[in-house]
Please model this.
Amino acid sequence: MSIEIKIVQPKNKINIYKIEELWKSACTNAFGNKTCPRIGISDDFYRMKLEFISSNEEYEKNKSMLNTTDDYVLFDRNNYGSGIYLWFEDDNICMKASFPTTYSEILGLYNLVNVMCNEFGIKEFYRGSLGEFNLVDTSQLDWFIELGINDTLMMLDRMKKDMLEDNAFGGHISINGVVNPICITLDNLKSWGIDLPLEGNMENITTVMKNYEMFMNEIQQRDLFYSVFKLYQIIEGEKQVINGYISVAQDCDIILPINPKTEFYFGVNRFDTSTINKFYAMLSDSNGENVYIEYDEFLNKIDYKTKEKYDGTHFIIRLSATDIEKIIG
Model:
């Protein structure tokens, strides 16, 4: 579920650097904290490229990599959520927010719409979803913000119902975050207050929205590497098969999945994981040679159940050289 915005470009078309300038004035923290507006690009696995979430100096140096053919993500480095997607399409500037999204991102989206429209000397823009758009007016922005909050609460409640009714694969639901995908559990939803009476109760609504926003930011602020499975077609015996490989580096805090087949990037791309023959963990021995261990065996050897959980389907691990030698020994 998402909402899309289309704003007609002015005659003198603007570039992504002008939009970044406008985003700096539009980005908002709903709870009064300092913002750090940025624009970036995600990789093929829905992880923000590191150059856009690094220090301010690195960001300013690397943002010259942006070009008009990219799909961008607008975000707040001080308050991570799911991000606002932006791209250029014909003569339009297009933006999309997927639900659930944070209160601050809802405000930021419509603040940016208002700032853009003022910059272009217009009052109207297109708003819709699933390819159907209505021409609307900036006088309606407060109403659209309220609708965005309602859509987020509705989506969180739908996630709860799907989990309770066993309609969620593995009992968890993954959503996209700015830094990396996040897997939401029923315990998460309950801790945010989703069971509170919400209709007409602004105090409870604010509680849920604030708790959800804090969770999304805090989990993504950690200095961790979100490792992913890469697929390769190889010859085994006399047949061609697809295997998945995930790199587990030494002396690095890494996020790893419990069940590879539930990974967000497979689901979003509708990849049939039943076509994958085997999954492997790839480690380097003391000689720098790569060693491959079937992933289930790797999980057993590290006793993953004792490791710190990251989210509903991932854990955090840090392996020393000695740890790796024990695993591959």
The two ends are 48 Å apart (CA to CA). The chain has a mean pLDDT of 92.
